[in-house]
Amino acid sequence: MDLYEKIKELAFAKNISISRLEEELGFANASLKRWRSSNPGADKLTKVADYFHVSVDYLLGREELEQPQFSPELLDAIDNAEGFSGQPLDNHDKEIIKGLLAAYLAGKNK
Question: Which of helix, strand or coil describes residue 88?
């Protein structure tokens, strides 16, 4: 996954659009998308990492996020959760829920 895709994934988990993220960080429109083909400055990369509470190394693909250890009961609840339509959640949605919980817990522990 490239840098832009990682940022897009983090933004999705935080329920923020890329354009809103650029606005909040004071970046020009579509500047993050240009990172697919160019290298950002360290200051901008650090700004994005700080916003999402991840390391620059994570954004660059040098390390993975630490996955929290959820209790078996919580994992079971997520696996058996239903969406708004009453249908079981797909694996993608389950991973999003786990990511949101991980981000929430990481924020509480700071």
Answer: strand
Contacts of 48 (CB under 8 A, 6+ apart): 7, 21, 25, 32, 59
pLDDT in tens, 82-101: 888 888 888 888 888 888 88
Sign of CA pseudo-dihedral 66, 72, 73, 76? positive
pLDDT in tens, 10-64: 898 888 999 999 999 999 999 999 999 988 999 999 999 999 888 888 888 887 7
Side chain identity at residue 13, one-letter code? A
65 burial via Cβ count (<10 Å: 0-12, 13-18, 19+): middle
Residue listed under structure tokens 């817990």? 105
This prediction has a pTM of 0.59
The CA-to-CA distance between both ends of the chain, in Å, stands at 27
Q: Which two tokens stand for residue 51?
A: 């916003």
Position 66, amino acid: E
Beta-bridged to residue 88, according to DSSP, are 82
Closest C-alpha among 81, 63, 70 to residue 105: 70
